[in-house]
Amino acid sequence: MARWQTATGSVADMEPSALRVKAADAGSVAVGDFSQAGSRQDQSELQQYDYDVETVERVYRKLDWRIIPPFWCLYFLCSAIRSNIGIAQTMNVSDRHDLMSVLHMTPKDTSTALALFYVSYVIFDLPSNLVMSRLNPRVWMARIVFATSLVGTCFAAVQSAWSLKLLRFLLGMVIAGMWPGMAYYLTLFYPPSRTGKRIGMYFTASQVSAAVVGLVSAGFQLMDGLGGLVGFRWMFLVYGLVGIVLSFALLWWLPDRPLAPGQVRHRSKWLSWLPHSPEAVTGDDAIVHYQDLRRVYHPRPWTIRDLVEVLLDWRLWPLTLMYFGVVGVGIGTQLYGSVIIAAIQPTASAITVSLLFAPIWIIDLIAIIIVTPLSDRFHRLRAFFFSAAACIQIAGLLVTTFAVNGWARYSGLLMVGFGLGPTVPICMAWTSETFQRRHGEVGVAAATALVSGLGNLGSITTTYALYAGWPKDAMKGPHQFRKSNLVMVGILGLSIASALVMAVLLRMFGNPPSTKLENDVLNEPEDGAARREAHQPSNLTLRGIMTDLFTVSLISKRATHPSA
């Protein structure tokens, strides 16, 4: 039985079969007539009703179970393939079977190889995401995973510094578009007010991946010499082969973009050989989803002019600077974390360093689970959540840099991990939320790619100019990496300032839809969640909720202790 919330606030119960009643009688659209559901007359009829929260949440839970697990798996493996070069620098170092010793690389060779990945990533990120918006997103995502895994497997055969640099450049080229593409894919199924939590759900795969790479590398180090391969070659080979298998599974596992109920999916001839992917939701659930998020069923073809309008939108650049700082620190920690641990714990073995690397990402994972749902619930306070997390990173970097005791410096890395967790999901969710409302589908595709691509210039800065790329700063001793850490503190300050500027300017100028988009959606709230929020009591804010909780606590206390 479904429950409908009318515009006047009354609630009516209906059997699912009643949804097939004529619109004039039930306030809905006949199931067999949904091919016409995009008309303005039907839009106005649908606007009169809204499903109750329980019904809508049930549908989105089904979507979560269908979309988040494959996203988690693909992001886990691609993150491992992208970052395992960091742990390879310390694997079996006592036997001189680490990456730098085997390939006879200098620290500058290492920093150049790491940076080349992000050079190609920045170049190809936007084109990849725009192609994805034109083609089948499911197939394009599987293509990214297959190509990434294939190149990752080739790392097992690398023999020299130049071949490592070439493969790192190719890896950045083929993986480009994955991270912003995942954010774009979510907007096809979820309203902006729900994306932050979902991004956080699969972003945890990166943290688990970093922890697992550290832990499992201990096992690969024990395989050193098996079959004539050193430990890090076994690591590259296994992760790459598993990723190739996953890429084929994604063709069935991920759903195609949703259709309006009643529409028939027409498949291209060149895709007819691919396995059929079941629809994300069907039947009455598809009707509920359609009414709660009608925009996803009406993608508007975009032109170069639309793309230029996105590029000229001032909202893009504060978000890019926010991403620049936090992703730079994140990549620096991911690629050089084990090296920093080895520097502050000089007596630790290579296996101990690998084991100490994992807790950083477990703490990171905990922060994501705690903070990202709150940033979705209070999405008007995204700047606050982002800035607070960045401040924790700054504090952690300062502790790691200036503390005297080695374990105290290690605790600073744990603080950095906690602060890192929520920042990237919050930034991508804020980007999707802002540009979906303002520019529609092309806005999400272009803005997420540009924020991710240009923001990864911070990764180039970290990998090429800082840490191993700064020879004097990389010299062993009590002050190793001190200057690099302080530069990252300054970059994080830039990210915090950009978040505050974004919040202030949005408050001053707002975020109205573009004229063309406004005509398409009749200037309505972009989704059911936004409509429900518009009718919430005025005290449903962070301050109001805290006041209500205090009141409930006081009443409960008095009921328990009447004399109080």
TrEMBL record:
<dbReference type="GO" id="GO:0005886">
    <property type="term" value="C:plasma membrane"/>
</dbReference>
<protein>
    <submittedName>
        <fullName>High affinity nicotinic acid plasma membrane permease</fullName>
    </submittedName>
</protein>
<keyword id="KW-0472">Membrane</keyword>
<keyword id="KW-0813">Transport</keyword>
<dbReference type="GO" id="GO:1901604">
    <property type="term" value="F:dethiobiotin transmembrane transporter activity"/>
</dbReference>
<feature type="transmembrane region" description="Helical">
    <location>
        <begin position="202"/>
        <end position="222"/>
    </location>
</feature>
<dbReference type="InterPro" id="IPR036259">
    <property type="entry name" value="MFS_trans_sf"/>
</dbReference>
<feature type="transmembrane region" description="Helical">
    <location>
        <begin position="111"/>
        <end position="132"/>
    </location>
</feature>
<feature type="transmembrane region" description="Helical">
    <location>
        <begin position="383"/>
        <end position="404"/>
    </location>
</feature>
<feature type="transmembrane region" description="Helical">
    <location>
        <begin position="144"/>
        <end position="163"/>
    </location>
</feature>
<feature type="transmembrane region" description="Helical">
    <location>
        <begin position="486"/>
        <end position="506"/>
    </location>
</feature>
<feature type="transmembrane region" description="Helical">
    <location>
        <begin position="169"/>
        <end position="190"/>
    </location>
</feature>
<feature type="transmembrane region" description="Helical">
    <location>
        <begin position="350"/>
        <end position="371"/>
    </location>
</feature>
<dbReference type="GO" id="GO:1905135">
    <property type="term" value="P:biotin import across plasma membrane"/>
</dbReference>
<dbReference type="Pfam" id="PF07690">
    <property type="entry name" value="MFS_1"/>
</dbReference>
<dbReference type="InterPro" id="IPR011701">
    <property type="entry name" value="MFS"/>
</dbReference>
<feature type="transmembrane region" description="Helical">
    <location>
        <begin position="234"/>
        <end position="254"/>
    </location>
</feature>
<feature type="transmembrane region" description="Helical">
    <location>
        <begin position="442"/>
        <end position="466"/>
    </location>
</feature>
<keyword id="KW-1133">Transmembrane helix</keyword>
<keyword id="KW-0812">Transmembrane</keyword>
<dbReference type="InterPro" id="IPR020846">
    <property type="entry name" value="MFS_dom"/>
</dbReference>
<dbReference type="GO" id="GO:0015225">
    <property type="term" value="F:biotin transmembrane transporter activity"/>
</dbReference>
<feature type="domain" description="Major facilitator superfamily (MFS) profile">
    <location>
        <begin position="50"/>
        <end position="515"/>
    </location>
</feature>
<feature type="transmembrane region" description="Helical">
    <location>
        <begin position="321"/>
        <end position="344"/>
    </location>
</feature>
<dbReference type="GO" id="GO:0015295">
    <property type="term" value="F:solute:proton symporter activity"/>
</dbReference>
<feature type="transmembrane region" description="Helical">
    <location>
        <begin position="410"/>
        <end position="430"/>
    </location>
</feature>
<feature type="transmembrane region" description="Helical">
    <location>
        <begin position="71"/>
        <end position="91"/>
    </location>
</feature>
